[in-house]
Amino acid sequence: MKLSKKLLAVAVLAAAASGAAEARIQSIGDNTADGSEFLFNLVNYTAQNSFTLDLGITVEQFLANPSQSLSFTLSDNNFQSFAAAYTAGNNVTWGISGGHQILSELSDLQKFGFYTTSVVPAPASFDANVADINNTQGKWNDLVSYIQTQDANSNNLSTFKTVGQQGYTAVYGNDFQTALPFTAQGQLGTALSFVRERANADDFDTGELVTFPGVWNFAINGNVGSLTYTAAPAAVPLPAAVWMFGAGLMGVLRATRRKSLAV
Fold first, then answer.
1. How many CA atoms within 13 Å lie on the side-chain side of 121?
2. Cα gap 113→102, rounded to integer Å
3. Helices in the chain by DSSP H: which ranges?
4. Which is nearest to 185 in space by CA: 86, 79, 24, 43?
5. What pLDDT score does 216 carry?
6. First-to-last CA distance in the chain?
7. N or C terminus: which one in the chain shows less Cβ crowding within 10 Å?
8. What is the DSSP letter of 9?
9. Dist CA 212 CA 195 (whole Å)
10. Confidence label for 35 from pLDDT (cuts 50, 70 and 90)
11. Are 39 and 51 in contact (CB under 8 A)?
């Protein structure tokens, strides 16, 4: 498929804005069609340390079934280091994020964008255009580049960093150094929505927001963490027999009412 001049210009802009065509957690800047893997980011502002985990799920894998439920248990040495420094009442925030930065074909619009948790279900303010989306993804690329190394997707790498160390993620705040117009990371005990900033299909530039049918939750229990994505339950259609029974029941009630009035 050949690109329109408008789409080609946007694709060039995307690459220029980010410095890399697309970022994967374990292979920074590689140009793959399945997008990055999602990153779990956990920050203790009181103890001044941070923990990250590569969840091993790419954008493409998530989009194949956005209504799936996911569950992760965090108990490796890096998480235990984080948990050992945690005390109830600490100022701790967490979130999930990732992206798909390739925009060279019309079909890429189905995946392109920045994926992130959000404190509110549908933020009123979000990145206005592709340049702004790529600016946010650029901040995410910088964050990732300091905390992961090139490796296979199947290896779910984690990090534990303290203030002053390269890769300490608190420096990105809860909105990727204000690049994101809404708050992505929430406090412990807060359920977070999951959204995507994407480009409008009409002009391939205007920013749009997509919300996913599920929420993320995270909890610390001793030296173990629990991270889950719970999809909103789908509406269950009633069997045809139920509708027929209901219609028949209403008919009987109407007939009974008429009989009572006649008497």
1. 4
2. 9
3. 5-18, 59-63, 77-84, 130-145, 240-262
4. 43
5. 98
6. 76
7. C
8. H
9. 6
10. confident
11. no
